[in-house]
Amino acid sequence: MRRLVIAALLCLIPAVAQADTRWTLVKTYPHDPKAFTEGLLWADGGLYESTGLNGVSDIRQVRLKDGKVLRRTTLDRQYFGEGIVNWGDKIVSLTWRHRLGFVWNRKDFKQTGTFRYEGEGWALTQDGKQIIMSDGTAQLRLLDPDTLAEKRRVTVTWNGQPVERLNELEYVKGEVLANIWYENRIARINPATGAVIDWIDLSPLAAKVQVNDRDAVLNGIAYDAAKDRLFVTGKFWPHLFEIKLQR
Q1: Alpha helices in the chain (DSSP H)
Q2: How far apart are CA 45 and CA 29, in angstroms?
Q3: Fewest CB within 10 angstroms: 47, 111, 147, 150, which?
Q4: How far apart are the C-alpha atoms of 233 and 223, rounded to whole Å?
Q5: Long-range CB contact pairs, 51-59, < 8 A, 24+
Q6: Alpha-carbon distance 118 to 80, whole Å?
Q7: If DSSP states are collapsed to H, E and C, what string results for 124-177?
């Protein structure tokens, strides 16, 4: 998620088995190559995205077919924007290190509230009952959707070992899908136990992007439940991809 030395991170990546979940590429769409994507979601038949970096962080509604930004709201320059989630008629958003989240009216992007949390804020999703938050560790935080207070945490593991750097999240068919920062794979997580069910290796998509920036990593998952469409993208990626998982 941040501008760090990749070499230091790569040495922390645990060895895992080859991904087993097969997928096919359905369609490729344009995506703003200047968007430092932190959050991605589908709601009300449309795509919403949040971007990071101090001074340019925003929340936007995006037209899928051509990537055009239909409307946006910008965060104050001091904030590094992070993930977003929809809840009712609201959008909830995080900031990285300010321990401060925002609540927005989804219809007009007007800020209606704030909330606090400990540690870092990375990403959000929801399962219809609670909001699920990542903070860059191996833990998922479960939040009360009305008060946004933390209720409990679940540690994500693979073969009994914690999976660190959980990033952008999406709830899909009873599973939490999670980007792993600086990896081209998505973890399929059992939200009840935290166990990784399997991996989705999107290295072929990353190879298609060909962006010469060390921070242009895979990040951003959105699911259109009505049409069973799964979208993925990355930071500074010029494309957004629709893929189909072969479960």
Answers
A1: 6-10, 203-209
A2: 16
A3: 147
A4: 12
A5: 51/81, 52/1, 52/80, 52/81, 52/82, 52/96, 52/235, 53/80, 53/81, 54/78, 54/79, 54/80, 57/81, 59/84, 59/91, 59/93, 59/104, 59/109
A6: 16
A7: EEECCCCEEEECCCCEEEEECCCCCCEEEEEECEECCEECCCEEEEEEECCEEE
Q: Give the angle 203-159-233 at the CA atoms, nearest 5°.
A: 25
pLDDT tens digits, 77-89? 999 999 999 999 9
Could you tell me if 47 and 63 are in contact, meaning their C-beta atoms sit under 8 angstroms apart? yes
Which residues, including other chains, have CB under 8 Å from residue 185's CB and lie 6 or more apart? Answer: 19, 199, 200, 201, 202, 203
Question: 16-51, pLDDT tens digit by residue?
Answer: 444 489 999 999 999 999 999 999 999 989 999 999
Domains and CATH numbers, the chain: 16-246 (2.130.10.10)
Report helix, strand or coil for 217. Answer: coil
Separation of alpha carbons 235 and 247, rounded Å:
27
Rounded Cα gap, residues 154 and 210, in angstroms: 35
